[in-house]
Amino acid sequence: MISSALDKTAFSIMPLPDTEWEALAACWTPVKYKRKDMITAAGEVEKYIYFVEDGVQRLFSLEEDKEVTILFSYTGSFSGVVDSFQLQKPSPWYLEALTPSSMLRLSWTDFDRLTRQYPLIERWVRIGTAAALAGILERHKEILSYSAEQKFRTLLTRSPHVLQLIPQKYLASYLGIDPATFSKLLRSVKL
């Protein structure tokens, strides 16, 4: 039986008729990762897209031996190196399990077959990808134009639960601020 959380998240993108949903839902398989497991390494072609049933993951890059956190995924969200997956090109990113993670995964082979066979699934993917891109563009604007405090406030207004889920050093990296600055903001900023 497929996760009701996957059903809820998938249908928030776009409801699918029973035939399409049943075909899509049947292709997800469970997988588990331990804390600090590397799910995808830079240079690999992403073979799966994931749905997080439990746990936290981060997408990051290495820039001159410095880790730069790009995004987080956690319970109830999709995960994976989406650009590598959809384009079937080597990933420039790493995907790591920050905590023990229970996930469902959909293979590229099934994804490709389903999107070719069912135009509504192709549309569902397009709408979901466009929504994700809109979020990334908004975040890009924040990174380029917000002060450290504005970035901090925006993160905690949008996702206050991340303080309980994600270590501060990764949150600081995600915001593009020094860990000491993050710690100072944590003590001084009241929401």
Strand content: 15-25%
Estimated helix fraction: 40-55%
Supply Rg.
17 Å
Give a count of the beta strands, DSSP E runs of length 2 or more: 8
Number of helices: 9
Low-confidence stretches: none
Q: Report how far the terminal alpha carbons are from each other.
A: 41 Å
Q: If strands are numbered along the chain, what order do they take across the biggest sheet?
A: 1-8-3-6
Oligomer: single chain
**Category by helix and strand content:** alpha+beta
Written as H for each helix and E for each strand, in order along the chain, the element string is HHEEEEEEHEEHHHHHH
What general outline do the C-alpha atoms trace? Answer: globular
Overall pLDDT, averaged? 93
Major sheet? 4 strands, antiparallel
